[in-house]
Amino acid sequence: MKAKLTATAALMMAGVLSLSACGGNTSSTTAGGGDAAGNLDGRGPITYVQGKDNTGAIRPLIEKWNAAHPDEKVALKEQTDQPDQQHDDLVQHFQAKDPNYDVMSVDLVWTAEFAAKGWLQPLKDKMAIDTAGTLPSTVEGASYNDTLYTAPQHSDGGILYYRTDLVPTPPKTWDEMMEMCSIAKENNIGCYSGQFKQYEGLTVNASEAINSAGGSVLGDDGKPNLDTPEAKEGLNNLVDAFKNGNIPAEAITYQEEESRRAFQEGKLLFHRNWPYLYNLATTEGSSKVKDVLGMTALPGKDGPGASSLGGHNVGVSVYSENKATALDFLKFMTSEETQRFYATQGSLAPVLSSLYDDAELVKKLPYLPVLKTSIENAVPRPVTPFYPAVTQAIQENSYAALKGEKSAEQALADMQKSIETAGAGS
Amino acid sequence: MSTGTALRAEQDRGRKAAQNREKWALGRTYISAAVILIWCLAPAYWMVVTAFRDVGFTYDTSILPTHVTLDNFITAFDTSFGNRFGQALLNSIFIGVVVTAISLLIGVFAAYALARLNFRFKYLVLGFILGASMFPGVALITPLFQLFTNIGWMGTYQALIIPNISFVLPLTVYTMTSFFREMPWELEESARVDGCTQGQAFRKVIMPLAAPAIFTTAILAFISSWNEFLIASQLSSDATQPVTVAIANFAGAQPQQIPYTAIMAAGTIVTIPLVILVLIFQRKIVAGLTAGAVK
Amino acid sequence: MATEVGPTPVKAPASGGTPIHHGPKGVGEDNKILSQAKWATWLLAPTIIALGIVIVYPIISAIVMSFQKDAGLDPATGLFTAGGPAGIQNYVNWLGQQCAAPGGGTVACPPGTLGAQFWSATQTTFIFTIITVTLETILGFWMAMIMARTFKGRSLVRAAVLVPWAIPTAVTAQLWLFIFDFQGIANKMFNTSILWTGSEWPAKWAVIIADTWKTTPFMALLILAGLQMIPAEVYEAAKVDGASAWQRFRMITLPLVKPALMVAVLFRTLDALRMFDLPYILTGGANNTTTLSILVINQIRQGFNSAAALSTITFIIIFIVAFIFVRFLGANVVEQSGATGKGKK
Description:
The complex is a heterotrimer. In chain A, 45% of the residues lie in helices and 13% in strands. By secondary structure, chain A is α/β, with parallel strands linked by helices. In chain A, strands 1, 2, 3, 6, 11 and 12 form a six-stranded mixed sheet that branches. A four-stranded mixed sheet of chain A has the order 8-9-7-10. The longest helix of chain A has 29 residues, at 2-30. Chain C has a domain at 122-339: MetI-like (MetI-like fold). In chain C, 53% of the residues are buried. Chains in contact: A-B, A-C, B-C.
């Protein structure tokens, strides 16, 4: 019995020891990417990590690369389809300083966090890439503290869909759209909806409302900037629309799919959603808007509104041992040819300005011109290493405001304070 | 004479009343069974109906199947986009069987010790085992990840099996302990008088009596392992991932699209082995302590 | 009459006359106990080791981390720096719902921070636990009693009961989200237009219904196993003695199933206190459906050490509940002396 107990105790001790070793790891990691200068010339096989591929594009691309680079082959590691789990998986591997995660697909909103943790190789000096033809808002979303940490790969922006049979000319501003709600009333359908359930999509919609009215969530200094008349006007646009029924009450339960369904069933006049709706609404058997689907930029204060930016970038881990190969692969993944392939094969919106005017692509993806306007006017979701706290603050408070549990003013004040405490955390 | 007739009539009435009562009781049983069936199966029915529905009509609310198609099942097993649902199904069965077998084996030992043997620190051991099932599962992942990375176990079967065993063990030990305490142990005594060793007595006399409890516990253990997702989502690899992870990986043809129909098809497929399992074990669960066993 | 129905016929077949729980007594009592201890060590070792690796190690690591500050941002470089030791500050912050203030020190957490949700999450967790476990116990007991009867189609019912449980939680949650959709089948069937996930109590009930549906089979099966162990002749004897159905239930079924029932209730309670996936997928924690486990996982993404403190607090809360259970409700499966154990009935 004693022997066993000793064994167990030893095991526990080992646990504590290895734990403190891990603590050591983390602190040296966070102290600032000491490895960023190493292995810059390393060449050899690497691994590319991304979420579940649902486009069928990544495998042919990697095969093509491998055929051309027999000594620097790329292995594909697919994560799950859930963004949260992809994030956690990357964090786990970074914390373990895993050299086998060389190149990875990074969601826009993780960029700042990973950069600030010192996990991403800054794309400067020897690792610099050319971003001349890339849409500026996507470059902004890929940078942290004015340094580019990831290469924009594909983008996404909001589109205002509308019914061409009921709306003769699409609205350019929020106020115009609200006036047209009388059409919806005559036809006994809802007027407008985005996504308003308390989840990431609400951050997208609330930020769009605030940005479109001229406000912003974070100021240029990275501090919250919500105590402004513009922010209040933006949030109030949504709050009022809920109050007067221009946004139907059930929209408080909508994520992308629920709202898409309401629009496709002909229950909405205007609808904010991502480009993916186009393909489904024009092909699905149950869609009632197949032939009457209109698209335009999101409505703003005086002109096009400011969409929230979605999309993924490609980054290189500081722990990679073959960074020269990694950089070449990163360039390959963001090349014009690859972006064109992604657009045709997987309907993913490119980040290169020129591709949006490509006649052949526009023929295949008719929403590209509208999307270009959307992305050109887009504001990245708050670029901050405290993104999880910021999105929590926005979601919870704007949700309360939309439900009429607190005034827009109060909600914004609470958001401001919440984000301040997140930044103060240590 | 007349008293005799009256008596017979009385007995007759009594028999009829008893029969009526039995009929009535049986009727109530069937009604209750029907209610249970509806409660358990109605949502599952909706899953199956949705599983057979064309993806373009995902949100149809007709109660009966409409737009019937097998596409979702084909999609579920389609491997062209890197889905490995078939492999994942086998993984889950393999992991479940191993976890169930091992945790039952060592759990039964522990339960026997706790129910039958006399030793110090018994309460401490019980408290420890119970305490092990109290920590929020979500907080276990990161330390386990680090541990398994350090010893090179990431993505292996044992990295999924060992945590699962620990999750299942406390319940196994507690259940078996509580059943063992209710066992007629004097049978073991008499077996030993008849010349059996303690081990033989346990194997030949006690185990058969404990069968229903053991099979019930086995099912609990298997399903618990079958349902595990959190740990598997972080510690499995493409080759070892169980169905729960595979289903979470189901992706729609479009980025934001949630492929409800394919998810429901997968849910339907995943449920079938469990139902078969229960039907096979049926007799074992029922084979309880018959009255005669004690004599 | 009824008073005689109770323990007497029960005890006879189940445990005989002699107290056998201590094992055979006789000469060399001390040696016996010693050899039993040796046996016990060998029999328990695998269990202890398995739990030690997977559970104890993470618990210790979490406790150590909970006394560290989370990494903070160095304003000069924009990079994170390790936080250093925190003492019990993380715990104080959670319990007092305090957040770091911009100028240093702490302020009451404003709405929209995780810190502001601690007590409401605790309350929600308990509400969910109490309602779901109660419903599941009652329903589970009822189902088990039906399944224990002999009737045609019994095996069908037994298999059907397991269906909800066999469906992985990830699918279950999606299924119920789908059912409770505003235009979903639930509103259609009952001809209502409830915003199930859009306000507090409908959202809570959505979670409770989904959880009850999913986990009642667990209860039912464990209780059924308990029922199977009651010899049929005990009921026969009681019937002959003229005990009514209610008396039979109260005097025979309940006491004899109690050990199995208590284990089931105990483990369901511990599970319910850690409820995560269902509310997370159904409501995202909105409308006061954030449980402690959801709070932990949200906090893990914001700061690991503070999350470790929160998991430790959750652990302690659950521990207290379990302690109360074992001490006062008799969920103790090692109640040693056979006499006192049975006497409680």
